[in-house]
Amino acid sequence: MGKDLPKLLSVKDAADILELSEPRIKQMIYRNELNAEKVGNQWVIRETDLNAVKERRTVGRPPKETAQANQ
Questions:
Q1: Higher pLDDT, 14 or 65
Q2: Alpha-carbon distance 34 to 36, whole Å?
Q3: Where are the alpha helices (DSSP H) in 1-71?
Q4: pTM over cut 0.85
Q5: Alpha-carbon distance values, 30 to 33, 34, 38 (Å)
Q6: Degrees (nearest 5) of the Cα angle 11, 53, 69?
Q7: Separation in Å, CA 10 to CA 16, 53, 66
Q8: By the 8 A CB rule, do 25 and 40 touch?
Q9: How far apart are CA 23 and CA 20, in angstroms?
Q10: Which of 28, 33, 34 is CA-nearest to residue 47?
């Protein structure tokens, strides 16, 4: 068997890795921010897709614009 299969993660696994809630992971799936496939009644996420989200994700709110930046 020459080809390696991708590692598949559950929504719970993805939530633990990204330190987010399971509903937030599902929201990301529904908004097409995270690629996933439905197998039966469960979502599965390829580890490579999760890593792509992990790399581009920034934590926290974006900084507020200051009054000086508007001048």
A1: 14
A2: 6
A3: 11-18, 22-30, 47-56
A4: no
A5: 8, 8, 11
A6: 130
A7: 10, 15, 41
A8: no
A9: 8
A10: 34
Q: What is residue 37's predicted lDDT score, i.e. its pLDDT?
A: 96
Question: H or E segment at 9?
Answer: strand 8-9
For 8-60, write each residue's pLDDT tens digit: 999 999 999 999 999 999 999 999 999 999 999 999 999 999 999 888 866 66
Whether residue 13 contacts residue 42, with contact meaning beta carbons closer than 8 Å, is answered with no
- Token digits for 32? 């097409």
| 18 closest CA partner among 44, 42, 47, 39 | 47
